[in-house]
Design goal:
The structure holds 2 protein chains of 2 kinds.
Chain A (H helix, E strand, L loop, with lengths): L7 E4 L12 H9 L3 E3 H8 L3 H14 L2 E3 L9 H7 L1 H20 L25 H4 L26 H12 L6 H4 L8 H15 L12 H20 L1 H83 L3 H14 L4 H31 L3 H14 L3 H11 L4 H20 L6 H17 L3 H14 L4 H12 L1
Antiparallel strand pairs in A: 1-2, 1-3
Chain B lengths: L3 E6 L3 E8 L2 E4 L9 E2 L1 E4 L5 E3 L1 H5 L8 E3 L12 H9 L3 E4 L5 E5 L2 E4 H20 L5 E6 L5 H13 L3 E7 H10 L5 E9 L4 E9 L2 E10 L4 H20 L7 H20 L2 E11 L5 E9 H25 L9 E5 L6 H11 L12 H14 L6 E3 L1 E2 L3 E5 L3 E6 L3 E2 L2 E8 L8 E7 L9 E8 L11 E8 L5 E7 L5 E6 L7 H49 L3 H23 L2 H24 L4
Parallel strand pairs in B: 1-11, 11-12, 13-18, 15-19
Antiparallel strand pairs in B: 1-2, 2-3, 2-4, 5-6, 5-7, 8-9, 9-10, 13-14, 14-15, 16-17, 20-23, 21-22, 21-25, 24-27, 25-26, 27-28, 28-29
Chain lengths: 485, 609
Amino acid sequence: MSLARTLRLRVKPGVRPETLALGPQEYFVLSRIEGQGSVAEIIGASGLGAAETEQILERLLELGALERENGSATKPSPRRRIQTSPELRSQAADRRRRLLRQQLGAQVRQDSGSGSASTRPRNNTPTAEPASEAEPTPNDFVPPLVAPDDERLDASLGLPVDTQRHLLALEDRRAELSPFDILSLHPTDDLKVIRSAFRDASRTFHPDAYHGRELGRFREVLAGLFAAAKTAYQDLQKSEVRQPLVAQVEAERLRKKQLEAQREAAARAAEELRLRREQEQRAERRAARDARRNERQRQRIATATLTKVQEHLAAATEAEGEENYARAANNYRLALQLSPDDPDIRRRWEDSRQIARQGRAKGAFARACSLVEVGHFAEALPLFLEAADADPTLEHLAHAADAVREQDVGKARDLAMRALQLLTENETSDAPLRPNAVADLRMMVARAFLAAGQGQSAREQALLVQRVRPKDPQARALLKSIKVT
Amino acid sequence: MENVVGIDLGTTNTCVAIVEDGVPTVIPNKGGYKTTPSMVAISESSKRLVGHIAKRQSVTNAQNTVYAAKRLIGRRWESPAARAVQQSCPYTVVDGPHGDVRIKLRETVYSIPEISAFILQEMKLVAEQYLDGAIERAVITVPAYFNDNQRQATKDAGRIAGLDVIRIINEPTAAALAYGFGKDLERKVAVYDLGGGTFDISILDIGRGVFEVISTAGDTFLGGEDFDVRVMDALIQGFQEKTGVDVADDRMALQRIKDAAEKARCELSVAREALVDLPFLYTTPSGQTFHMQESLTRETLEELTRDLVERTVAICDKTLRDANIDKDGLDDVILVGGMTRMPLIQQRVAEFFGLEPCKGVHPDEVVALGASIQAAALVDENVDVLLLDVTPHSLGIMIVGGYFHRLIEQNTTVPTSASHIFTTVRDNQTSVKILVLQGESDKAADNELLGEFILSGLRKAPKGEVEVEVTFSISADGLVSVAAKDLETGREQSITVTATSGLTEEELQNLVESSQHYMVEVRASEEFERQRQQAERLIADVRELFPQVQAVMSGTAFGRDAIAKAEGVVERAEQEIRNQDARSLEEVVESLERTLNMFRGVVSKTGLS
C-alpha cells in the first residue's frame, strides 16, 4: 500500500511525540512536518527515500501522531497554509525544535567535523535547512530521565520539564557517570565529535543558554552539570582517560559482535543441518519411491514375461502338436530368452530344436538324394551340407563328405573324419546298420579321403567295402586309381 | 523586546551598541560620532562635561579633566598603578576613605566608579535618545585581565549610572563574539586586544554558535597611554635639550604635549612622518616664550615603543605555552583596539602568529558590538549564541604561613566550583578566618583580597583534628560565592564575595540617588532648553510681524488692545526664559503661538504681505 502523494497530513493537535514509541527516523520525519503538508512535500523535506518516508508516515498515522487533513487535498497551496494556520505552524516549529534538540542533544555527531551549518539544534529557520544535514545518525544513546512525577520538577520554570527530568537524572547519577555519559556521547576517539558533544552539552547545561529565563534551583544544577561537562571534556582530551573507555566499549562491542557472529554461525549451522537432513530425507523418500516403482516395474515385467513365456510355450506346444518343430524350437527359444533359467524350457527347446534339425536334415537329405538321382549334383551339395550340419548322422556326413569333395577338400576330409568315427561307433552299436549300407557309406568316405589326398584312409575303406562286396566295381576302380597315384 | 545595550567602556573611548533585528549596531552619539571620549570634566561653572565637550576643553581645564579613569578603577591607593597615574596625569588623585583612589575636581572628591558612571550615563542617554525608550540593563566590557575588584567597580559604575549591569564580559571575548556572530564558523582564534590602557590576549574556540574561551591573559597596565607617555617624554626631553626649559611642572603644557603626542602617534599609523607644532608652549616667569616644533618619524616612534610591543608578544607567547596551544592550530588572529592600527604591531603580530591578522572587524567598535550580542543572547530567545567564558585569575584562600592556596585555577570555564578540606592549625582553635584571594602569586599578600569571613563555633580539639570544607563557586555571571562547612558539626556558613570597588553600600546608595536626581535635572534642563529655543523662535517671528500688524490695527481700540496683549505675551515669555522655568514657559509658548497665528492672519487678510 502506498499513500497518495497529494494526501495532506497534519500533526494531530496536542500530540506529545515524546510520549509515543518513536524511532529516531520517525521522530525525524515527524519533526520535518511543518504543522501540515502533503505526502509529497514531506518526502521532499525529509530527504529520505519515498518508500521509506511513506512507511514511516503510515506508522505515524497508526500511532496517532498524524492525521489526515480533510477537504484541502485539492488545493495544496502553501501560501494559504501559512495564512490559515500560523498558530499551528508556530506550534509545529516549537515542537520540531524541541524534538531536534532532544534528539541531537543525545546524539553522536559523526558529521561535526565538516562544519556543516545547519546541524545546529536550535536553528530557527523553518524550512531552509537541507534535510541531509539534520538527518539523525542512528544513535541508541538514551539520555537518562527521572520519573515524570518527581517532586523536584517545576513546570513554572522557564525550563522544559523534559529537560528538567534529564538534568535531575544526570545530577542524581553524577558520581557513576563516565565522562562520555555526561556528554551524552558514545565513547569515541574522535576529538571533533567530542568537542561537538561538549558544545551541545554546553547548550543544555550552561545557565546562559536559557536566555535569562527563570531557572530556580536548576540554576545550580545546571552550573554543577556544566562544570562536570567541562571537566569531562577536558579529561577526554587526554588519551589515557579516553582510551580505556573507548577500549572498554570497543571490547564490549567486539564481544557483542562476536557473540552475534557466533549466534549467527550457530543459526547458520543449524539451518544447514536442517537443510541437509531435509535433503537426506527427500533423497531417502525418493529412493524408496524409486525402489517401489522398480519393484512394480519388475513385477510387471515378470508378469509380462511370464505371460509371454506362456504364450511362447503355448505356441511351441501348438507347433509341436502340428509337428512343426522348427516353430516350436523358435518359440521355446523366445521363451527361454525371457526365462533363461528354466531347465524345462531349455530341455524342451533343445529337444524340439533337435527334432526340428533332424526333420530339416531328413528333408534336406531326401531332397538331395532325389536331386542326385536326377543328376543335379551341384544343387544337391548344399542340401547335403545342410543335412550334415543339422543332423550329423553317419549317413548325412558320409553323403556330405562325398558331395563336397570336389569343391572343398578340407571340408570333405573333415566330414569324412567325423563319418569315419561314427562308422567305428556303428560297429560296436546295439543296432548296427546293414553291412551293405555301411559299405555304401564307406565307399563315400573313401572317395572323400581320396579327394582330400588321404590315399591310405581311402584304400582302407575301399578294402573294407570289398570285404562286404568283393566285386564292387566302385571300390575296385577306387583302389586302382589309388595304385595309379 | 526590552532594549539591552552593550557598552565598551574603554580607557580612551567609549562605545555603545545594540542588536537591532538581529544586527548589532553601534549607536552614534549626539555629535554623530560612533565613539565618545572617555573623558569627564567639571567646568568653571561646576557643570559636568562628558565626552567630546570634555575633550575639547581639556587643554584649558587640564586639572579638572579626567581621562583614562579606567586605569584607576578598582585599584587601591597603594597599588603601583595608582602611583603611576598620579605621577603622569594633570588631575589630582587623592587617597580614598577605604584605601581606594579618588579624584579631586574643583574641591569635590569623586570616586572612580562615579567618574565612569558619568560616562556610562552619557552613553545611556545617547542610547535612549536613539532608541526613544528607556534603557535599564546593559552588558559592559572590561579587559580580560581585570580582577574582581575592578569588575565590581565597573558594575558599581553602571549601577550609579542607573544601569543594571547584567553581565561583565571580557573585551577580547566580546570582539570574538562580534567576529563570529552570524557566521557559521568552526575556528580557533586569537584575539589580540591592545587598547588605550590595557592589553589582552585571548584564545577562543568557536563552533556552532558556542564561543569557548580557552585561555586569556594580559596586562592591565599596558596600552596606548604608555605609548603616548613614551612620545611625550621624548618630546619633553627634546624640548629641554633645545631650550633648556623643563615643562614637567606646567600642567597645561603637559596636557598640550600629551594631546600632540597622541595625535602624532595616530598620524604615524598612516603617515611616515608627523609634525608636532605647539606655539607658545611655555612662557618663563620673565616673559620669554618657547614654541615646540618637532618632526617625528615612524621609525622614531617604533624605536621608542618597540619594547612595549615586544612585551605584548611575550605575553602572547606565554599564554599559548601555558594553555598548551600550538600556533599552527590557530585559524585567525583578530586585532582589537585602536593601538592595533600601528604598523609595527600588525607586523609583529603577523610574524608571531604566522597569520595575516583578520581585517574584517573595526577595532574601535567591535567590542561594543560583541557586548551588545552577549546582551541580546542573555535576554533574547532568538539570539543563538552561547559564550563560555573563563575566570582570568586563580581563586583561593590564604593558608597558614601567609601562602595562597588555589582552589580554582585561572582560565577555568565558568560556572565552576571547587572544594578543599582544611584543618585547624592551632590547638583548641574555635574559629577560622577565611580570606578569599585572587591572583597568581604564591604569597597571599601579593594577591587581591576579595573578601573575608569567619567560621566560628568549631569544636575545641587538638590542631589538625577539626576539618573545614571550603567550597568556592563562580556563577555564570562571575559572582564568587564561598561556603565553609565544619565537617564535624555540619555547620555551614557562606558568603557571596562582593569584591570591593572602593565604595561602601551606603555610599553607593547615595550616589545612585544623586545620580537619579542628576538625570532628572538633565532631563528637565533638556526640556527647558527645547522650550526656550521654541519660545525664542516664536518671539522673533512675532517681532518681525509687529510693524505690519501695528500699521493695520493701531487704528482701532480693539487693535490697540490686541497689540498690547501681544506685547505682554512676548514680555512674559522673555521673563520666563530668564527664570528658567520650563513649565511656565510651556504655557507662554502656547500663548505665543496663538499670537503669531493671529498676526499672520491679520497680515494675510490685509494683503500687505
